[in-house]
Amino acid sequence: MPNSNSLMVKWPWVLGWQLGLALGPIALIVQLWQQKSLTRLGNKLDWLAGGWLLCLALNVGFASFVHQAGWYAWAVVCAIAILYALTQWLTSSIRVSRLLHFQGALAIAFAVLSLTLWTAQTALPYLDTLASLKSYGISRSFDWQIVSLRNWYPIGHQNYVAGYLILSLPLLLGLSILHKGQQRVLWGAGFLVGLVCLYTTASRGSWFGLLTSVATFCIVFAWRYPQRRKLLSIATLMGTGGLLFWIFGNDRLRTLLLSAFTGSDNNEIAYRVVTNTTGWLIGRDHWLFGAGLGNVALLYQKYLPDWAGQSAELTYQLHSTPAQIWAEFGLTGSLLALGSFCLLAYLSLRWFRRGQYSPDTFVLVASLWSGLLGYGVFSLSDYQLDNLCISGTLVIFIAVLAFYLRAGLETQPSYTVRRLPVAVLGISLLVVVSVWLYPIHRAWMLSSQGFTRLAQADMAGFVDKLEDAHRLAPWEPYYPYQLGWNLGEQAYLTSDVRQREMLQALSTEWLEKAIAISPYQEFGYSNLGWLLVNTQPERAVAAFSQAAQLVPSKKGSFFALGYALLQSNRLDLAIEAITLELLRNPLLLTSPIWRSPELEPVFPQVLSAFEQTCTRFINESSAELKPYFYQIRGGLHWWRGNFDQARADFSHTSNPLNSIMLSLGTETPVSLLAPSSPAEAAAMGWLDADKKESAFYKALLLSNPSEYAYPESYLAQMSQEIAQSAERSASFHQWLTEMAPVRSQRNQRLGFGVLSRHIDGPLPSDFAPRLENVLMTQFFGDLFPAEIYNPGLDQLLAPLREQLINQTE
After folding, report:
1. Long-range CB contacts for residues 22-26, cutoff 8 Å, separation at least 24
2. Is 278:305 a contact under the CB 8 Å cutoff?
3. What is the pLDDT of residues 674-708, one digit of tens each?
C-alpha cells in the first residue's frame, strides 16, 4: 500500500499492525500448548533473547516518557515472540526453503510494484514537466537532489525502500544461483528489477550497503569454491564496474564523494552530524538504560547542539541505528546489540568452517549474510527498525540462520514445557497488555472521528472527541496540541471579539497542557507566545524565550522574542533580539512587515544595531566568517541605497549576484544575453520593457526548485503583478525596496504528524505573521544569503543569545 509506513500511525491502520504483531505471542502460546516443548534458538542465542527482554523492562522503567517507551517495547516483545514462533515452525529444510522462496517472491513483487508506481506517478509526470520547461528556454535534467523524485513507493520513504532491497537482493541472487532453466531466469530477472528499483531510490547509503553485500558474496564464494575464483574475479570486476557507473549516474552520490574528498560543505552530511551528536548527548545523559524507546522525538530539541543551525531542527529518528540504540537503550542496549551481532557472526564462522552442509544450504546462508552485512553498513546512515517490512525480514533471516546453526552446531535444541503454567502466563500477559492498549486505541479512534467532525466544520463535535481522547490517553501530547492549535486558528478566523477572546483562552489552556506533557517542543512555545503577545506580552516573552533556547537558529525565533519584548516596553532588549534574528536570517530585513505601525518606528534603530554588529564581527571573527558578514553588511548598504559602501563590502566576497545588483542599482549597463538564474531572468525583465511578463514568467519557473512547475494560473497572475510593479517604479532600487509585490503566508508544519507519530489530524500552520517581498524571496535572495548550517556562526552568536535570554527572565 503506498505510503504504508506513514499509515502505520493513522487510524484504523494502527490497529491492524498492532493486531498483526499480537499474532506472534498468540501463535507461540498455541504452539507450546500443542507441542508441549519449546524449540530453542540454541547456541546461547536464547540468553541474548532473555537479555533483551530484561533490557526492555529496565528501559521502560527508567524512560523519560514511560508510555511511549511501553508502546514500542511491546512491539519488540512481539517481534521476539514471532522469532520463537518461527523457530517452532521451522522444523525442516523444506520449510526453510519455502519460507525463503516466499520472501524472494515477495521482494520481486515489491520491486515491480515500486517501479510501476514510481514510473507512473513520479517519473513520467516530471518528464512532461521538463518538456514543458524547454518551451520557455529552460533546460533541466532528471535531478535526484529533488527529494520527491526519489522512489519512495510503496513504503513512504526512499531509504526504507532501499533498506528492504539491500536485505532482499542477495537472497534473489542466491535463488537464481540455486535454480536452473526458467526459474534461474525468473529469479535473475527479479534481481535485476530490484537493482533498478534500488537505483531509483537515489539512496547514497544503499550504494555502500550494496558494495558490502557484493564484497561479502564474492569473498565467501571465493573461499568456499577456490576452483571458481577466475569466474568470481570476472563477476567482481563486472560488479565493480556497475557500482562505478552507479556513482557517475547518481548526482547525489557523486556530490557526497566529492564533498568527502575535497572537504567542502554538504548539508546532508551536516544533517547526520547534527542528529548523531544529538543522539550521543541524549545517551550520555541516560547512559545506563537509555532515554527510553520512542523518546528521541520528544527529547530531541532539548539536546540539539547550539551550533546545529537550521540543518536538523526536529526529527523522530536519528538517521543512524547505532546512534538511535545508544540514545534509547544506553550502554546496556548497545552492548547487547553488539554482542548479538558478534555471537551470530562467530557461530556462523564456525558453521562455515565445519563444512557440514549442502551446496544449496551454503548459497542460502551466504546470501542471508550478504544481505545482513550490507544492511548493517547501510544502517549506519539511517534507522529503520520501526519499519515492519524491514524488521520482519530481519526476524525471518535470524530465525533461518538459527535453524542452520542448530543443525550444524547444537545438540539439544529443545526442552519440555508445562502447558498450563505457560498458557496461563502467556494469556495473562496478553490480557494485561490489552487492558493497557485499549484506551490508547479508543483515544486514537475518537480523535480520528473528531478530525472528521472538524473537516465537516463541526467544531463542537471536534472538541468533544479530542477532549475524550485526551482523558483516555493523558500522556499523549498530540491531542492537546491539536485542540490548542485548532481553537487558536478559529480565534484568528472569527470576527466576533468575545468569541475570539474565549477561543484564545481555550487555545492557551490546551497548548499549556500539551507543553506540560511534552516540554521540549518548540512548536508549543512559539504558538503559545503568538497567542499571548498582544494581550499578555510578558507571558509571551517567557514562551518565546523557551522556544529560542530549544531551537535558537530557527527562522523567526528571536524576531518573535524581540516583538514580545517590544510589546512589553523593553526597547533595548527588543532591538538586541531582532538584531540576533537578522544576523542569522538577514533576508527578514526586506520584509514588508517593517512597515507595520508597531515596527516601523524602531526599524532604523534595528538597522543601525545590525550594521554595528556586522562591523564588530568583521573585525573580531575568524577569516572563514568574514565574507558572510561583509556580504550581509554590503546587502544592507545596497538596501539603503549606499552603493559605494556596498561595492566596498562586496569586494571581499565572491557572490556572483553582487555585480548585477550594483550595476542595476546604479543604472550601469549590464549584459544578460542568456539568463540562467532567477535573478538574471528577473533583471532581464526589468531591462527589457517589451518582454517583461515573459521574462518574469521564466524567472518564476527558474526559481521553483520542486519537481513540478507552478500552476499556470499562479504564474500568469504573479508575472503580471511583478510586471505592473516594475512599471510603477522609477528605479530598480525602488522596485525592490518599495514597490515589490507582497505575499502573506504562514509557515506550515509539514512534518508535524509524522514527527508526532499521528497523521489523522490537519497540519498546523504557525500563528506567526509572515510577509514576504516576492522579488527578494523568489529572485534576489542571495543578496542576503541564508546559512542553513554554519557551526562557526552559531557558536559566535551563542553567548549573545544566552545573555539576552538570561536578561529576559
Report:
1. 22/78, 22/430, 24/78, 24/79, 24/81, 24/82, 24/85, 25/77, 25/78, 25/81, 25/426, 25/429, 25/430, 26/430
2. yes
3. 677 899 889 888 988 778 888 888 888 888 766 55
- Cα separation of 686 and 684, whole Å? 5
3-state secondary structure of 415: strand
Among 538-547, 571-580, 754-763, the minimum mean pLDDT is found in 754-763
CB 682 within 8 A of CB 703: no
* Cβ–Cβ under 8 Å, residues 85 and 380: no
Report whether pLDDT(591) > 90.
yes
Q: Which of 547, 539, 71 is nearest to 301 (CA)?
A: 547
Q: What pairs with residue 39 in β-bridges?
A: 414
Residues in a beta bridge with 744: 771
Burial level of 551, CB count in 10 A (0-12/13-18/19+)? buried
Q: Give the Cα separation of 589 and 559 in Å (integer).
A: 11
What is the arithmetic mean of pLDDT over 83-91? 94
Torsion of Cα atoms, 559 then 561 then 567 then 569, to 10°: -110
| 134 CB-near residues (< 8 Å, 6+ apart) | none
Cβ atoms of residues 480 and 513 within 8 Å: yes
Residue 587 CA to residue 563 CA, distance in Å, equals 17
Residue 618 grid coordinates: 568583521
Residue with more model confidence, 625 or 312: 625
Residue 773, strand partner residues:
742
Mean pLDDT, residues 549-573: 95
Furthest-apart CA atoms within the chain: distance in Å = 93
Nearest to 660 by CA among 785, 773, 779: 779
pLDDT tens for 434-474 read 999 999 999 999 999 999 999 999 999 999 999 999 999 99
Instruction: Identify any residues that bridge with 742 across adjacent strands, giving them in sequence order.
Output: 773
Residue 230 CB coordination number (10 Å):
8
pLDDT at 127: 86
Q: Is pLDDT above 70 for 413?
A: no
Say yes or no to pLDDT of 602 above 80: yes
- What whole-number distance in Å separates Cα of residue 284 and Cα of residue 270? 21
CA dihedral sign of residues 147, 148, 153, 156: positive
Sign of CA dihedral 394, 399, 404, 405: positive
Q: What is the DSSP letter of 586?
A: G
State the burial class of residue 245 (Cβ atoms within 10 Å of its Cβ: 0-12, 13-18, 19+).
Answer: exposed
- Grid cell 558578514 — which residue? 629
Non-local CB neighbours of 252 within 8 Å, separated by 6+ positions: 144, 145, 202, 204
Residues 220-232, mean pLDDT to the nearest whole number: 71
The arithmetic mean of pLDDT across residues 490-505, rounded, is 91
Question: Taking a C-beta distance cutoff of 8 angstroms, is the pair 372, 402 a contact?
Answer: no
Angstrom distance (rounded) from CA 332 to CA 59: 9
Report residue 205's pLDDT band, with 50, 70 and 90 as the boundaries: confident
Q: Which residue has the higher pLDDT, 38 or 565?
A: 565
DSSP 733-781: HHHHHTS--EEE---B-TTHHHHHT--SSPPPB-SS--EEEHHHHHTSG
Tell me: pLDDT of 2 over 60.
no
DSSP sequence for 610-657: HHHHHHHHHHHS-TTTHHHHHHHHHHHHHHHT-HHHHHHHHTT---TH
Q: Where are the alpha helices (H) located in 91-203, listed in sequence order?
A: 93-118, 124-134, 158-178, 182-200
> Averaged over 513-521, what is the pLDDT?
96
Amino acid at 505: A
Q: Summarize pLDDT for 626-677 with one digit per residue, the tens.
A: 999 999 999 999 999 999 999 999 999 999 999 999 999 888 877 776 677 8
